[in-house]
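Q: I have 112 residues here and want to know how they pack in 3D. Can you give me a structure?
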Amino acid sequence: MPSAPRTLLTPSSDLAATRAAYAPLLGEPMIHEDYYLAWQLGDLHIGFAPGGGPHALAGPTPFWDVPDLEEAVVALAAAGASVRQQPMDVGGGTRTALLTDPDGNPLGLRQA
């Protein structure tokens, strides 16, 4: 598994306001749709989703890219993580899963 997350997803209650707040720092977003707002900063994808998106995220959540989503979910669950959202298709050929570590912190996995 990679040593750093490649995606950081954050809930947004108002994508237009989020875009206005972050644009001075990050520039114009690469994606600005009714369902998603995102910037790409080097290897890091920073995304905002209304209501936390399909995972109903409550706060910023790192997502690590993995080559085999199901295998990673099984390995992390066996090591003590709890599966909050089983692997699911989120569009564009991307699949994600959401787990929590033993302290309840969110742990996202992404396979593209």
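Q: Anything worth noting?
A: The mean pLDDT is 92. The radius of gyration is 14 Å.
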